[in-house]
Specification:
With about 180 residues, the protein is mainly α. The protein has one domain (about 1-165). Helix content is about 85%, strand content about 0%. It is built from 6 helices and no strands. The protein has helices at about 1-30, 35-40, 45-85, 90-120, 130-170, 175-180. Helix 4 packs antiparallel against helix 5 (about 130-170).
């Protein structure tokens, strides 16, 4: 449960960080800090936003790279833990295996392409282009995989909670007495 909870929390934190980093660019540009405003006004129009968004993009790529590595480890640890801690519960193992497969797909196929295409677009002129369309296609697949993974993590956590409660009821409270010590 702890491993799945950490994974769930990490996923929610990454969703927050990725979106808030980009919103932070606009908050910074709209701030009334005199020194920043003065520095931004010395630059050509649009350049401060472009540079700040580039910096945020690089930060997000870095965070998502480490997030992917952490997820691979969490997935392996969770799968091994469930294998030994649940006496091979097939549903829990299937969910954990599916989560690990999704992470591998993201890590090996989606993330490298989103990163590559994103870097091509960092300083590209605005407007439609085949690269931009391809980027958003891969970004949508990555986002969909994240949503599916989040839902599967919730199902797995729910299943473990329900299974624990059923075990507690069938032992006649013996588990509760042991836990309260």
């Amino acid at each position: 449960m702890l491993i799945a909870g950490v994974w769930l929390g990490l996923t929610l934190a990454m969703l927050f960080v990725a979106t808030e980093n980009f919103r932070g660019v606009d908050r910074l540009l709209e701030s009334s800090v005199k020194e920043a405003t003065s520095a931004f006004q010395k630059m050509p129009p649009g350049l401060p936003r472009q540079l700040l968004r580039y910096q945020v993009s690089e930060l997000n790529r870095y965070f998502f790279d480490w997030y992917g590595i952490a997820q691979m480890w969490l997935g392996v640890i969770l799968l091994l833990n469930l294998l030994f801690a649940t006496n091979g519960n097939k549903v829990a193992l299937g969910l954990a295996g599916t989560l690990l497969a999704i992470v591998a797909l993201e890590r090996l196929l989606l993330f490298p392409e989103v990163t590559y295409l994103g870097r091509l677009l960092d300083f590209a002129p605005a407007g439609e282009s085949p690269v931009r369309s391809r980027f958003w296609t891969f970004h949508k697949y990555f986002s969909a995989a994240e949503v599916v993974k989040l839902l599967l993590l919730l199902v797995l956590c729910g299943k473990m909670l329900i299974r624990r409660e059923v075990r507690r009821r069938t032992t006649g409270g013996i588990g509760e007495a042991a836990e309260s010590r």
